[in-house]
Amino acid sequence: MGKLFSKLFGSKEMRILMLGLDAAGKTTILYRLKLGSSVSTIPTVGFNVETVTYKNVRFNVWDVGGQEKIRPLWRHYFTGSQGLIFVVDSSDRDRIEEARQELHRIATDREMQGAVILVFANKQDLPNGKFELQSANCQEENRL
């Protein structure tokens, strides 16, 4: 029945933001999802937008640069976003707290209320890349 419904009424679209500090690996992840292979990237100044289709859902993924000077502009991308993929370079222990603060700022913005948030711990294959993550239901605990 679900397949018939999807065929009759078309696919669903979702707007997803991909944010994180600079050099976390956002663009690499985006093109790995889109193309199924790794590509060479350069730091994103501005944004990349790609559509990734999965199970009849079109995900319009907005990969926005993470340099400190660009971060104040992130809020302009919040409106209409149904999900957030927040990418963290898990091998960069020196910036984990900075990443946590940025994620908290995003998650508490009223434009992001109701958005599904996924924290992607990237680069776990690198030295110091593995650490224990704690999961939390932020709506219940109301904190990050």
UniProtKB/TrEMBL annotation:
<dbReference type="InterPro" id="IPR024156">
    <property type="entry name" value="Small_GTPase_ARF"/>
</dbReference>
<feature type="binding site">
    <location>
        <position position="66"/>
    </location>
    <ligand>
        <name>GTP</name>
    </ligand>
</feature>
<feature type="binding site">
    <location>
        <position position="27"/>
    </location>
    <ligand>
        <name>Mg(2+)</name>
    </ligand>
</feature>
<dbReference type="GO" id="GO:0030010">
    <property type="term" value="P:establishment of cell polarity"/>
</dbReference>
<dbReference type="GO" id="GO:0046872">
    <property type="term" value="F:metal ion binding"/>
</dbReference>
<dbReference type="GO" id="GO:0003924">
    <property type="term" value="F:GTPase activity"/>
</dbReference>
<keyword id="KW-0479">Metal-binding</keyword>
<dbReference type="InterPro" id="IPR006689">
    <property type="entry name" value="Small_GTPase_ARF/SAR"/>
</dbReference>
<dbReference type="Pfam" id="PF00025">
    <property type="entry name" value="Arf"/>
</dbReference>
<feature type="binding site">
    <location>
        <begin position="122"/>
        <end position="125"/>
    </location>
    <ligand>
        <name>GTP</name>
    </ligand>
</feature>
<dbReference type="InterPro" id="IPR005225">
    <property type="entry name" value="Small_GTP-bd"/>
</dbReference>
<protein>
    <submittedName>
        <fullName>ADP-ribosylation factor 6</fullName>
    </submittedName>
</protein>
<dbReference type="GO" id="GO:0005525">
    <property type="term" value="F:GTP binding"/>
</dbReference>
<dbReference type="InterPro" id="IPR027417">
    <property type="entry name" value="P-loop_NTPase"/>
</dbReference>
<keyword id="KW-0460">Magnesium</keyword>
<feature type="binding site">
    <location>
        <begin position="20"/>
        <end position="27"/>
    </location>
    <ligand>
        <name>GTP</name>
    </ligand>
</feature>
<keyword id="KW-0342">GTP-binding</keyword>
<keyword id="KW-0547">Nucleotide-binding</keyword>
<comment type="similarity">
    <text>Belongs to the small GTPase superfamily. Arf family.</text>
</comment>
<feature type="binding site">
    <location>
        <position position="44"/>
    </location>
    <ligand>
        <name>Mg(2+)</name>
    </ligand>
</feature>
